[in-house]
Amino acid sequence: MWRSTSLTDGWIRESDWNRRDSMDNRFRQRLFVALKKDPLAVFLLAILAVVIVMSIGGAWFSGYDPLKVDYKQALLPPSGDHWLGTDNYGRDVLSRLMHGGASSLGASVLAVSLIISLGLLIGLAAGYFGGWVDMVLTRLMDVLFSFPQLVLAIALASLLGPGLMSLMIAVAAVAWPSFARIFRSYVLSVRNEGYVLAAKTSGIPAWKIIGTHILGSIAGPILVLVTLDMGNIILSIASMSFLGLGIRPPQPEWGAMLNEGRAYIEEAPWLFLAPGLTIFATVLATNYLGDTLKDALEPRTLHMPRLFERRKKRSGSVEAMGQSGRESAAGDQGPSPLAQGTAQAAESGSRLPAHTKRGASANSGRERSALAKTSGAVPPGGMPFAAGAAGSRGDQAAENRACVLSAEGLCVSARAERGGSRKPILEDIGLQLQRGECLGLVGESGSGKSTLALALMGLLRSPLETTSGTIRLLGADTRLWEWNDWRKARGSRIAYITQDPMDSLNPVLTVGEQLQECLAAHRESGAAANKSEIKAKVLKLLQQTGLAAEVYGQYPHQLSGGMRQRVVIAMAIVNEPQIIIADEPTTALDVSTQARIMELLATLQRERNMSMIFITHDLRLVANIADRICVMKNGRMIEQGDVRSLFTEPREAYTQQLLKAIPSLRIPPHIRQAK
Ligand SMILES: Nc1ncnc2c1ncn2[C@@H]1O[C@H](COP(=O)(O)OP(=O)(O)OP(=O)(O)O)[C@@H](O)[C@H]1O
Known about the structure:
Number of strands: 12
Helix content: 40-55%
Radius of gyration: 32 Å
Number of domains: 2
CATH class of the largest domain: Alpha Beta
Distance between the termini: 48 Å
Number of helices: 26
Membrane topology: Multi-pass membrane protein; Peripheral membrane protein
GO molecular function, one term: ATP hydrolysis activity
Transmembrane segments: 40-62, 105-130, 150-176, 222-248, 268-290
Bound molecules: adenosine-5'-triphosphate
CATH superfamily of the largest domain: P-loop containing nucleotide triphosphate hydrolases
Strand order of the largest sheet: 8-9-10-5-11-12
Shape: elongated
CATH architecture of the largest domain: 3-Layer(aba) Sandwich
Main location: membrane
InterPro entries: AAA+_ATPase, ABC_Ni/Peptide_Import, ABC_transport_permease, ABC_transporter-like_ATP-bd, ABC_transporter-like_CS, MetI-like, MetI-like_sf, OppC_N
Structural class: alpha/beta
């Protein structure tokens, strides 16, 4: 099903509309949750609503004419007749405040609209077209920035003459460059995104690309910026009115009322306090609500409450485990879940805890920053991982020691939107990775390979979460781990190589800087950083991964795809992890580069006795590197076995189909005949 859209003049797939609707729903839901959790935000929202309603409906709500002079009523204090008292002309202050609100808020909204329109027009043009357009517009902004804004606004307002309109124009004329500069940088950050380039290559005109793709992507931040800056504009307009540059007396306006009340601050403080507190409350409310909106649009800032939630869960689960007697009481008192897990591994032998519904889901994902962290984190500081910790407790313990990573009954599902049902992604996954072993993970697209990899790295991100099952990393039960425990393990114990190297590489840092950062992240705390030693280590690593020394000072965009993938491999092994998860590391490469990268991975794995999970669609690739293969389909592990038996005697029909699907290298008969 398709729907037309007036913006693109094209057609949008029904599923895309649904996705857009679901994004809107998610935003509304997050906003609702943010408001529900924050009584102050609700209180300020209520205040703002009252101020707006009173300002708009001043003529209906107030029983007094805000302009009518009655000297007999002058400077009356607040009373039942005049709730906020009267001013020196005997005018009702509340009535003037309400009518003044219409002027102040109206002028602020119009000024913001003017500023945003100008800022958008100029910021979009400068950011999208670049070149001389950008240069001219940026220089113009620089010139305007070189004047003190308030002084320039006062000078402009004086030139234009008193009145609310000239005030608005003056405020807008000095405020737009700051907005234009921010909008320009938003545009710069999205203009080279794939979807914008795709639209350009489809021949869509620039104004349409700007109107749909670019503006659509930056609408959220713009909305936040507007809300956050509304308070500033209200203040600027009030300040200039206070200086006598705004609305002409006797018309009311908050800033002008402040000015009028200034002379009576001792004998009639309500004249000053009423507009002052109203401005204060309105500005505070718009600023605070801008922050709330930002939290709803950028879910990462919601991590705080989630972390608290998880902490609660954690203490609950530890207690529950203690009560049920499944785990030793020592687990409760141990300094770290890592240590607990290792102790459990050492002591319990095959005593794996029963599956629990308390899954430890971590909040992060595929985004670049999180992936960078898979190669760098806080020093493990003597984490007693399984190596050597199991001691000599017979064959069973030795067997456990050899298993560096395992999943038991692992289930992952996508949390439902309100009212919907959970979508299972992984079901009852069981796998074991032995020391020094390479385990191939194959399956069609969407079978859940990457989700499993992210779960094994503790990198599942909402809406995905572990619902049951256990992951043991080097003997440690990770169910109780928090973000920080995972952070310590990632990079130093288990590392991740992504399909697209640019997912892991920061485009503005050199290769050397990025490798040094990973290395420094796991340096023992307090250990002195010897720059030349670190550099030497990084250079050696570059050499080991087949890269020339000059790559050290180069940026990712200066490298070929194969070189970038080598850098990512170097980042993954820089802290000598025992386990590597390589998620289709060669898919984006040509065949010969692919072969060289495979050779590099195999060599590094062999030389360092690392364990590796190699994820791929390609059975031929996995046959060359893996010792064992797990086949996944629809989120389930349907077959496991050593390479030979899986290739020669596949049990499952699906595995047989996969093997049959391997393309033949034979030259097709019609080409042979042509020869
Ligand atoms: N954030 C998410 N929210 C909801 N569903 C998701 C999310 N991420 C992945 N999925 C779903 O999980 C399933 C498995 O996806 P996953 O990326 O793990 O597959 P894959 O086997 O790695 O595929 P590919 O080889 O194409 O990368 C898919 O049906 C996908 O739609």
